[in-house]
């Protein structure tokens, strides 16, 4: 066939071989519900989802804060998931946002200090970070920095802007801590954006890592994420439709899914796993280093705290031999034993020293917080409230506090006078309790509710069988308390 001067015909590349199944994966960029109006899943749900998908390690990187750090440590400890801590910092001067990952406990404390400094320098919801301070901290080797959430819309096709931003980040933070972040949500703009980011990474010789910029645990949470986006933009779902995510793609993925998404950049998946493994931190090892408290000769911090507390207890309640003071001395001994076991005598001595100095100088001073609701603080003069007299003892819940939600602990705290207090177990109809000690509960007549609602909203009998078709409309949905109509009302 004659050549009519046309150019060479370009052939489509052959089909790429599918990645081999298996492998490991670690997610380095996750927003929890603590990222207000951005993340749509709580930390516990994210950890459960990661465990279900076989993810090796999970990072919580909330916006301008370490809000989910403690919850991540609690939840991940139960399932053996590796924990990584970081935050997404919003920078000014057109640099957008970056993800800072702490690679050690020292890096975690420095990241916390940098966030605090930025929050103090700015306004609520708009921190201002010192770029020079961030650059100096990054060069100390305790942080890994990712290039942050991907830009969306037409900006994703502006390769010049992407190149300019990446160049500025590389000049600011250097090549060692900076990692180019590739995100693929299966959107049209993902391909050009990944190509532009990868090109800059090759030019600067930056390591490339893959993330999914997670906002929720599973695709079913995407509708909630869209609602939060509309609220953040002060709009409803109809008017904010152009700003909503076009697909439920910002969720946790398995290793097999990520290897398919990043089949053109397989090194990005391997680099992400390597970075995650080197950044796993056990937050339980992070303990505050309190200053040493000098005690008189012949005393330790434990013995000196007991000496002061017993003097104060005698002054407040009476001597140990007084029967009227028996409850106070029993509570004092219990609290001192807990304080000693937790290694916190120095903390209480420091608080006592501050309040003593303030009192001597005529400065009004009052201890506050849950620890103030204790016999020890009342005896030491840290507080002037007699928690024993008013039934406000919370010290058992405070000092023996295991990392749990403080709101839940406050709700479950039991106000009692003795050290043998325990949280009541959840009510169960099968629990054996002494007659007359069951909690009060509202019960319906035996004939009132022959049908119950299943978790899927379909009514069924108590024995598990389905009701007649003409009775289905009398059973409510989950949580519905409407009773079936009686014979008299049905006749109407």
From TrEMBL:
Domain of life assignment: Bacteria
Transmembrane regions listed in the UniProt entry: none
Biased composition (Basic residues): 432-445, 479-492
InterPro entries found in the cross-reference section: DNA_pol3_alpha_NTPase_dom, DnaE2/DnaE/PolC, PHP_dom, Pol/His_phosphatase_N, Pol/histidinol_Pase-like
Skewed-composition ranges (Low complexity): 446-455
Keyword Cytoplasm listed: yes
Residues in the signal sequence: none
Region (Disordered), start-end ranges: 411-492
Bias kind Basic and acidic residues: ranges: 411-425
Boundaries of every Polymerase/histidinol phosphatase N-terminal domain copy: 26-93
Keyword tags: Cytoplasm, DNA damage, DNA repair
Pfam families according to UniProt: DNA_pol3_alpha (PF07733), PHP (PF02811)
PANTHER family referenced in this protein's UniProt entry, alphabetically: DNA POLYMERASE III SUBUNIT ALPHA (PTHR32294), ERROR-PRONE DNA POLYMERASE (PTHR32294:SF4)
Identification of the protein by name: PHP domain-containing protein
Organism: Streptomyces lanatus
């Amino acid at each position: 066939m004659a050549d009519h001067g046309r150019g060479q015909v370009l052939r489509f590349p052959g089909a790429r071989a599918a990645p081999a199944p298996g492998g490991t994966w670690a997610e380095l960029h996750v927003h929890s519900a603590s990222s207000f109006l951005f993340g749509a899943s709580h930390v516990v749900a994210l950890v459960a989802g990661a465990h279900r998908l076989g993810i090796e390690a999970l990072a919580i990187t909330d916006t301008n804060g370490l809000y989910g750090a403690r919850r991540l440590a609690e939840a991940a400890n139960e399932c053996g998931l590796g924990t990584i801590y970081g935050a997404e910092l919003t920078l000014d001067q057109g640099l957008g946002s970056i993800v800072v990952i702490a690679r050690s406990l020292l890096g975690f404390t420095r990241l916390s200090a940098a966030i605090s400094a930025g929050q103090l320098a700015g306004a609520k919801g708009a921190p201002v970070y010192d770029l020079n301070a961030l650059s100096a901290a990054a060069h100390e080797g305790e942080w890994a920095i990712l290039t942050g959430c991907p830009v969306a819309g037409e900006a994703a096709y502006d390769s010049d802007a992407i190149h300019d931003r990446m160049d500025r980040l590389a000049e600011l933070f250097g090549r060692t801590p900076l990692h180019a972040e590739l995100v693929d949500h299966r959107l049209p703009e993902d391909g050009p954006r990944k190509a532009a980011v990868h090109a800059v990474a090759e030019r600067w010789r930056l390591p490339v890592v893959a993330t999914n910029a997670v906002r929720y645990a599973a695709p079913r949470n995407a509708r909630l994420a869209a609602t939060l986006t509309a609220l953040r933009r002060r709009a409803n779902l109809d008017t904010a439709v152009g700003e909503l995510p076009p697909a439920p793609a910002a969720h946790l993925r398995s290793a097999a899914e990520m290897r398919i998404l990043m089949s053109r950049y397989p090194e990005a998946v391997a680099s992400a796993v390597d970075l995650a493994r080197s950044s796993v931190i056990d937050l339980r090892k992070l303990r505050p280093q309190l200053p040493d408290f000098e005690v008189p000769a012949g005393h330790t911090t434990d013995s000196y705290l007991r000496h002061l507390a017993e003097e104060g207890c005698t002054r407040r309640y009476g001597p140990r031999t007084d029967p009227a003071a028996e409850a106070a001395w029993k509570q004092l001994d219990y609290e001192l034993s807990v304080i000693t076991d937790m290694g916190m005598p120095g903390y209480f001595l420091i608080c006592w020293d501050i309040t003593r100095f303030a009192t001597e100088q005529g400065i009004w001073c009052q201890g506050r917080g849950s620890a103030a609701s204790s016999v020890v603080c009342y005896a030491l003069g840290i507080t002037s409230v007699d928690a024993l007299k008013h039934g406000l003892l919370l010290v058992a819940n405070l000092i023996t506090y295991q990392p749990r939600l403080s709101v839940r602990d406050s709700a479950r705290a039991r106000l009692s006078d003795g050290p043998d207090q325990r949280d009541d177990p959840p009510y169960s109809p099968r629990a054996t309790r002494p007659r007359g000690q069951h909690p009060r509960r509202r019960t319906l007549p035996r004939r009132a509710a022959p049908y119950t609602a299943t978790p899927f909203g379909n009514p069924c009998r108590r024995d598990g069988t389905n009701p007649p078709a003409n009775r289905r409309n009398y059973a409510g949905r989950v949580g519905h308390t409407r009773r079936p109509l009686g014979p008299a009302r049905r006749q109407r």
